[in-house]
Amino acid sequence: MAKQALIEQRPWLLASIAAGTAFFFLKDNPIAEGVWGILLKGSAVGLLALYVALRVPGGKHRADGWLLVAALVLAALGDMAIELWFTAGGAFFAAAHCVATALYLRNRHARPSPVQKVVGLALLIGTPLVSYWLSGEVAIAVYAGFLGMMASTAWMSHYPRYRVGTGAVLFVVSDWLIFSRGAPLDLGVLPDLLIWPLYFGGQVMIATGIVQCLRGEQPVR
Hints:
Elements: H1 2-8, H2 11-26, H3 34-55, H4 62-81, H5 86-106, H6 114-135, H7 138-155, H8 161-180, H9 190-214
C-alpha cells in the first residue's frame, strides 16, 4: 500500500516541488514572463493541493483534509492573482487563511503548554503590528490580522509544531519580507532571495505535516 501510494500519488508532491523550484530560478527570466510565468507560479501550490487531495483519508479526518485542499487552492489562486492585482491576491490569501484557521480550530491542542500559548498570542498580535510597522498601511495590517490568526492557530493546534507550526511562521516571515520592500528598512537582496523559498517551503511543510497526521503516519499531540 505504501509503495503504491508512492508510485501513484507522491509524484504530485515532487511535481509541486519541481514547479516551485523552477519558478524561483525562472521568475526573472523572460521565459517566465506573462501568462506562462503566472501559471508556473500557481502550479507550485496547485500541485501541492492535488497531492493532498489524493492523500485525504476517509472517515473522520476527511473534512480536515478537504479544508486543507481548499486553503491550498485559494493560496494558489492568490499566487496568480497577485501578479495581476495585488489587492485581489491579498483577498485570496485572506480567504485561504480563514479556511486554514477553521482547520486548526477543529484540531486544537488539548493541553497547550505555557510557552505554546505565549508564542500563539505573539503571532496573533505581533503579525499585524509588525506588518503595519513595515508597510505603514492599514489595509496591509488588516490582511496581516488574518495571517496572524492562521499562524497562531496553527501553532496552537495538535499538529506537529516543527512541521506545521514552523511552516506557518515561515509564511509570516515571507509576507513580512514582501511588506519590507516599501519600508525605510533596506534589506537589500534578501527579499528577492527569500520570499518565495520561505513561502513555498512553509506551504510544503504545512501540507505534508498535516497529511501525515491525517493518515496516521505522524502522531498527533
